[in-house]
């Protein structure tokens, strides 16, 4: 019998070999099969899976989370944390922006290209002397914006369980080094599409450069500066690219968002406070 608590996969293997000794399973192979089977079930069915991972190699029944207060364990994608991303020294930030919040166009792009450098993401997350470049896409149909909730599967724990009006991610050093003008669409559409398609799949849309986004009111936002793009999607057709990471996604009216603004992380609040100008921005960054 299993204990009514999480167990490691080798314990399960020992139990199977004991109960079904006539089959004489190879223990090492059995442990591997158990890990693979449970991992695939959790990945496929996510919160609907009967099982949950409670630490590396330790599994149990999902209902125990609510009943006994266990915390589900999520594996961090080491490939993501080993990305070579673009950063800028924090003491150079004043050359790009004069205030926190949204800075509309007239961005000194040559300073971005002159001052940025590459850095391993896991190192940048621990180094508060640099600020990381990220892309920020606001996807809307003119009156409604796509909102979503970041799940506990997100690698960045500080953003989990928060609602957002933004898509995007860290900008690689390679992408930024290939850009002549970060806000010039004609020559940078490949970079922009790669960034956008990581989280959301859309077609027949219009992209307009907006400006920069920075906020030092919170630890995580102190470490990031966003390149904002307005994405007009007239057909309302989209597909979330990172299933399991972005939940409760939908087109939502600005009025509805403002009504529950306390659910949203601080960058989204700044975006909503400037949403009319963001949506109507005329592409003067190009």
From TrEMBL:
It comes from the Bacteria. This is Uncharacterized protein. It comes from Phocoenobacter skyensis.
């Amino acid at each position: 019998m299993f204990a009514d608590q999480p167990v490691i996969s080798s314990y399960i293997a020992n139990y199977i070999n004991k109960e079904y000794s006539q089959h004489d399973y190879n223990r090492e192979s059995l442990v591997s099969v158990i890990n693979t089977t449970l991992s695939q079930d959790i990945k496929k069915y996510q919160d609907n899976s009967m099982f949950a991972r409670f630490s590396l190699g330790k599994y149990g029944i999902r209902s125990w989370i609510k009943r006994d207060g266990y915390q589900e364990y999520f594996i961090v994608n080491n490939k993501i944390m080993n990305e070579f991303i673009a950063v800028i020294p924090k003491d150079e930030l004043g050359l790009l922006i004069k205030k926190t919040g949204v800075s509309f166009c007239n961005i000194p792009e040559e300073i971005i290209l002159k001052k940025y450098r590459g850095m391993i993401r896991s190192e940048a997350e621990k180094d508060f002397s640099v600020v990381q470049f990220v892309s920020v896409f606001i996807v809307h149909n003119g009156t409604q914006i796509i909102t979503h909730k970041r799940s506990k599967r997100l690698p960045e724990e500080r953003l989990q369980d928060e609602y957002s009006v933004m898509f995007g991610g860290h900008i690689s050093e390679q992408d930024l080094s290939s850009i002549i003008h970060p806000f010039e669409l004609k020559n940078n559409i490949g970079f922009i599409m790669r960034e956008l398609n990581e989280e959301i799949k859309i077609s027949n849309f219009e992209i307009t450069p907006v400006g920069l986004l920075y906020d030092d009111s919170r630890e995580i936002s102190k470490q990031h500066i966003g390149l904002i793009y307005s994405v007009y999607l007239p057909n309302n057709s989209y597909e979330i690219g990172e299933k399991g990471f972005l939940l409760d996604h939908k087109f939502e009216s600005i009025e509805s968002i403002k009504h529950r603004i306390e659910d949203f992380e601080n960058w989204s609040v700044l975006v909503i406070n400037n949403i009319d100008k963001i949506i109507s921005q005329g592409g003067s960054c190009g």
